[in-house]
Amino acid sequence: MPAARTALRLGVDLGGSKIEIIALGPRGRVALRRRRETPRGDYRATVGAIADLVEEAEAELGQRGSLGLGIPGSESPVDGRIRNANSTWLNGQPLRRDLQALLQREVRLANDANCFALSEAVDGAGAGAATVFGVILGTGVGGGLVVGSRVLAGANGIAGEWGHNPLPAPSEADHPLLPCYCGRAGCIETYLSGPAFAAHHRACGGTERDASAIANRAAAGDGACVTSLALYAERLARSLAGVINVFDPEVIVLGGGLSGIAALYDEVPLRWGRHIFSDSVRTRLLPPVHGDSSGVRGAAWLWNQA
């Protein structure tokens, strides 16, 4: 199936509740953006909904584009079927193959965290940097690695999946190690996801609040929230230090719901130096430029890669 040669790039972000499409023209100009509800639990309807969005967008714009797709999972390098997707009806399905057959064109597919990282590396917070680590801090914890504006997928297709590494150097406050849905205990995700942050705050005697509310109360001087946010920043610093020791990126961009906590961009770099094997740390920790749009933009930018 020949690759598309067009100035129009279409990106689709397949989420658990919505499917979003964006059309990028020259220099990343947004020509169109649409979304619709995801047919939850129905694989065939999901494939059909993606195809409909693509065909409607191209009809409106009067031209055919390349197509990139970001998903909450990844393709198995063994058989190309989807694995590890929290939209579980995708697991075990040959999504890219089915979509290519339906639309009669090549489709490029990547994990949504990789798409986020690529978007921020191409024309976002990491623009101009040779190496970028894009972090997702939300209901889960994920990440993507970009080198020279190209996603680094890895030999097993799991590069950047730091959320299921063990929390580094666990302290007394981190014990007992928390069980993770993956079957292990002490995974980074069990400490740094939004729900984990809120659960820890409750366990330490705090009132029922979500991560954003805890951060807001901390900024207002609430003692319990200040303590919870400080511990979260320390855990994030240790975890990102491990990434810096291995990948050593120029820029780390935070995404997901917790990326809006302004204090993290000051507090984490103050803490990570003692865990990094260097006499200085030049890595910059930055908020995203494109925010919630980065995933769908990154899917379109998959065609930036030869």
Using only C-alpha atoms, the radius of gyration works out to 20 Å
Under CATH, the homologous superfamily of the largest domain reads: ATPase, nucleotide binding domain
Main sheet summary: 5 strands, mixed
Helix-strand pattern: EEEHEEEHEHEEEHHHHEHEH
Trace the largest sheet across and list its strands. 3-2-1-4-7
> What is the total domain count?
2
Helix content: 25-40%
Structural class: alpha/beta
Describe this structure in words.
By secondary structure, the chain is of the alpha/beta class. It folds into 2 domains: 9-110, Nucleotidyltransferase, domain 5; 125-288, Nucleotidyltransferase, domain 5. Helix content is 34%, strand content 20%. It is built from 9 helices and 12 strands. The protein has helices at residues 43-61, 95-103, 112-123, 189-192, 194-203, 211-219, 223-247, 264-272, 294-301; strands at residues 9-14, 18-24, 30-37, 66-71, 74-75, 82-83, 107-111, 131-137, 141-147, 150-151, 251-255, 284-286. Strand 2 (18-24) and strand 3 form a beta hairpin. Helix 3 packs across helix 9. The radius of gyration is 20 Å and the shape is globular.
Outline the secondary-structure elements.
Blueprint: E1 9-14, E2 18-24, E3 30-37, H1 43-61, E4 66-71, E5 74-75, E6 82-83, H2 95-103, E7 107-111, H3 112-123, E8 131-137, E9 141-147, E10 150-151, H4 189-192, H5 194-203, H6 211-219, H7 223-247, E11 251-255, H8 264-272, E12 284-286, H9 294-301
Parallel strand pairs: 1-4, 4-7, 8-11, 11-12
Antiparallel strand pairs: 1-2, 2-3, 5-6, 8-9, 9-10
